[in-house]
Amino acid sequence: MSRKALPVFLLFLLISLLSCSGQIVVLTYNVENLFDDRSDDREYPEYTGEKWNSELYHRKLSALARAIKATSSGGPDVLCLQEIESRVALSDLRDRYLKNMGYRYLIFVPQEGVAATVACLSRLPVVRTRVHAVGSFDGVPLRHILEVQLAYEGSTLYLFNNHWKSKTGGVDATAPARRQAAKVLVERVREILSSVPSADLLVLGDLNENLDEWNRIGRRYLTATLADEAPGTEFESDGWERQTLFVTPSQSNTGLQEDRLVLYDPWYEIPPKQRGSSVYQGRWQTPDRLLLSAGLFDEAGFAYRRNSFRVIKEEFLLDPDSGFPLRWRAGAQSGRADTGYSDHLPLLVTLEFSRSR
After folding, report:
1. Distances (CA, A) of 178 to 162, 172, 215, 225, 238
2. Do the beta carbons of residue 341 and residue 326 sit within 8 Å?
3. Cα–Cα distance list, 204 to 28, 77, 106, 266, 331 (Å)
4. Fewer CB in 10 Å around end: N or C, the chain?
5. Does residue 60 contact residue 47 with C-beta atoms inside 8 Å?
6. Pick from 141, 65, 144, 94: nearest CA to 316
7. Which of 222, 144, 148 is nearest to 181 (CA)?
């Protein structure tokens, strides 16, 4: 074996050992508009002309790779990303900047009329993918929901990668679009759990709704996500409970509860003043979510242990002046030499694995 080949061999050996360690690390990260360096008239204005070129593109790829590598030793086993423009951008990230990290599986589904969408990289074998269309809102397509089924030691892990409608245009005005996405998601998850109540399942991504969204809007209307203690008498819409995603701080309350789908939200594990993965109007928000099914709390297959959820707040990801996420800004545009990363911070969850099944 040559000296040059030895480091690659050792890296693949390390990855093999990690995959047998009994832990699976899953990351969700809104990377803030990873556009490639090819113009196709889909780009946002700030990624056109002299504002965007191959050099800036590769600088951004390098920055994102640094952020991803810093989240866990050896890097996460599964990456669920939001705001990826193309398969080219995802491939360049994997093949050039996350090279030799074992991400054999790449999932990207282009969507007509959408500038940037969701995507996944995985070391775990992908056995099935499904794309769930959400429809449109005010004549504009809403992003699909990507379902990925991963296989590991004879067990299946379901992942649902989401990027729901942003609040651009008004929080109240855009709320129906997020409820529309929730309805599609809930129907599919209910279908899985009705057949296999113990299914290991993660709903993740940028839902553009906070953990306490209903309280933030003064309980004036139905939000797409609700705490499981929310009263059931305030809304007149027929069947609203079967179309709403309920979240809970209690592992024992997770699952199909009569008309409600209730998932565990580990944001509850973090003290309220420390919660946040992005910032809006100078206030920390929790739009990025990692929601867990009841199957992740049993002793078969994949399992979640309390405090295995993290918000990645490495110092280099934060603006030294504000302490908020250090957004991507090319030096020529921002008057600084660094590139920045994203207006969101990555979220990470570690799952243990039992081979007893």
Report:
1. 11, 11, 16, 9, 18
2. yes
3. 7, 15, 17, 12, 32
4. N
5. no
6. 65
7. 144
Q: Count CA atoms within 13 Å of residue 28 on its CB side.
A: 25
Return the structure tokens found at 31. 């990377």
Which of 118, 299, 107 has its CA nearest to residue 200?
299
pTM: 0.91
Nearest to 175 by CA among 165, 185, 184, 183: 165
For residues 83 and 34, the answer to whether their CB atoms sit within 8 Å is: yes
What DSSP state is assigned to residue 142?
P
For 20-143, where are the alpha helices, taking DSSP H only? 54-69, 87-92
3-state secondary structure of 278: strand
The type of residue at 155 is S
SS3 of 262-274: EEECHHHHCCHHH
- Tokens 């191959």 locate to 54
Residue 102 and residue 124: Cα distance in Å, rounded? 9
Type of residue numbered 171: V
Beta strands in the chain (DSSP E): 23-34, 78-84, 105-108, 117-122, 126-132, 136-137, 140-141, 145-152, 155-163, 200-206, 225-227, 245-248, 255-257, 260-264, 278-280, 283-285, 288-292, 301-311, 347-354
For each of the domains in the chain, give its residue range(s) and CATH number, in order of start: 23-354 (3.60.10.10)
* Residue length of the chain: 357
Whole-number Å distance between alpha carbons of 10 and 7: 5
Is the torsion defined by CA of 341, 348, 179, 276 positive or negative? negative
Q: What is the pLDDT of residue 24?
A: 95
Structure tokens, 6? 């030895």
268: phi then psi, degrees, rounded to nearest 5? -65, -20
- In angstroms, the CA 227 to CA 245 distance is 9
Decide: residue 221, CB within 10 A, 0-12 exposed, 13-18 middle, 19+ buried.
middle
pLDDT of res. 329: 81
Residue type, 145: I
